[in-house]
From TrEMBL:
This is CdaA regulatory protein CdaR. Coiled coil: none annotated. Pfam families: YbbR. The gene is cdaR.
Length: 418
């Protein structure tokens, strides 16, 4: 045995045998790897990914325009590498603008964290950008209330508050210089209750009304606003038209309440002095009783909890006999003066409609009474008690000898107190 190891032919034979074994082992490994590749597939595939976000790396004192928010990326390579990369999206797409100064630049869109086994194609590959100095400025926030005309009848917008009242806008100096308005929009359509701390986004516009893409801090503000339903109490005024049928005279006409509460906008209530009813046609009344009559209120004004009220009418039948028949006649007394009663000591009054303190009165009665009637027998008056400065519509009271019916040229007159 020792002689074998000492023989040079023996050593050569053993070396050859090891070389053959090594060749066979390497060949088997290569073939196994080839078989594995044929089983799993090594042919390259391509997958396109849309809307890949682009990150911007830039010095803090600058801002940039011209960088797209998203790009399209195509990846090509083995399916075993491609599929996880496309699914997990652990890669980054970015433009690196650090070290670049103000002005125009053509830069490449880069990527990171993608396997070297994949080929990467980005559309667009390069872009033109403009780098500008960063600027920031505080602006007051204005509130635009929209659909205010769609508030329910009688409701109106009151005081409002914005919190915070100012925001900080950051962008390039050229864009900040374009800012003309900073505002929020609040929809108040159909609201009957006040707005309490509603969060709304802030919008920024230039002088042409174009919205600007800028950084806003904070992006949202809170708006609170009062939605009011103003009210006031006014006296009830019963309106009539026509004349009672022959043989009847009016003793009294009385509403069930003398005062009601009405609601409406401040403007609609400002000049409202009374709650007038719809007109009662006296020509259709032939007996005493109670009728339900609605209100004739201005647009946008409503009475609380009621649209009408009861009015009690008391009539008196005129007595006639065959032996005491008396001819009825009608006469118009012209230019009867109107007196203003209960005017304040320092108040003065003028007539607006009619423009003079006189009006005609038509009298219906017995011929013998009418013939004796004179202008001074009739008294016309309006009551100014409690009326302040301004214009007022007031009813005209007519007094005259009993037994006659009196109809004034106007049921109401308009006076101005100063």
């Amino acid at each position: 045995m020792d002689n074998w190891f000492k023989s040079k032919w023996f050593v050569r034979a053993v070396s050859l045998a090891f070389a053959v074994l090594l060749f066979i082992f390497v060949n088997v490994e290569i073939n196994d790897k080839s078989a594995e590749n044929r089983f799993f597939g090594t042919s390259n595939e391509t997958q396109t990914i849309d809307n890949v976000p682009v990150d911007i790396r830039i010095d803090k004192n600058f801002v940039v325009s011209g960088v797209p928010e998203h790009v399209r990326m195509s990846l090509e390579g083995p399916q075993s590498v491609l599929a996880p990369a496309a699914k997990q999206r652990n890669f980054e797409v970015f433009v690196d603008l650090r070290g670049l100064g103000e002005g125009k630049h053509k830069v490449e869109i880069k990527y990171a964290n993608i396997s070297d086994d994949l080929k990467v194609y980005i559309e667009p590959k390069t872009i033109d950008v403009v780098i500008e100095e960063r600027a920031s400025k505080e602006f007051n926030v204005d509130v635009d209330f929209i659909n205010e005309d769609k508030l329910p009848s009688g409701y109106e917008l009151g005081d409002f508050m914005v919190n915070p009242q100012t925001v900080t806008i950051r962008s390039s100096k050229s864009v900040v210089d374009q800012i003309a308005s900073v505002k929020v929009f609040v929809d108040v359509a159909e609201l009957t209750e006040s707005i309490n701390s509603r969060e709304v986004p802030v919008k920024v516009y230039d002088s042409q009304g174009n919205e600007l893409n800028v950084a806003i801090d904070p992006e949202n503000v809170e708006v609170s606003a009062e939605i009011n339903n103003p009210s006031k109490k006014v006296p009830v005024s019963v309106k009539t038209t026509g004349k009672l049928p022959d043989g009847y005279s009016l003793v009294s006409i009385t509403p069930e309440v003398n005062e009601i509460e009405v609601f409406g906008t401040s403007n609609s209530l400002q000049d409202l002095e009374q709650a007038a009813t719809k007109e009662i046609d006296l020509s259709k009344i032939t007996e005493s009783g109670t009728i339900d009559i609605g209100f004739a209120l201005p647009d946008g004004v409503k009475a609380r909890d009621q649209d009408s009220l009861n009015v009690t009418i008391e009539l008196e039948q005129t007595k006639t006999t065959e032996t005491t028949k008396t001819t009825k006649t009608t006469k118009t007394i012209n230019d009867v003066p109107i007196e203003v009663e209960n005017l304040g000591n320092e108040q003065e009054v003028s007539f607006v409609e009619p423009n003079s303190p006189k009006m005609d009165v038509t009298v219906n009665g017995k011929q013998e009474d009418i013939d004796k009637l004179k202008n001074e027998d009739i008294k016309l008056s309006v009551n100014a008690d409690g009326l302040g400065e301004g214009e007022h519509q007031v009813p005209v009271m007519i007094e005259g000898p009993e037994g006659n019916e009196y109809t004034g040229e106007f049921e109401e007159v308009t006076i101005e107190i100063t």
